[in-house]
Amino acid sequence: MRLWLSKPLYELLPWFYMLAGLASLAGTVYLDYWYWPTICLVTGIACLTGGLVIWLRRKDFRRHRPPRASRPD
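The chain above was modelled as a monomer; its predicted structure follows.
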């Protein structure tokens, strides 16, 4: 079974990951309990890097794919 996302939601995922990463990095400033600053730092860097990698890979794929042929109506 495959999971299909709507195109607007699919296009927003890298931006959501990067926003979550920035929010987590900002959380390191305000949290000072147990290991939460370290957890937020690692999570923030991972989310920010993951979102950036996905965004750049999509951009590269779209740049190098052949143009789509028009559909006959």
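The CA atoms of residues 40 and 58 lie 27 Å apart.
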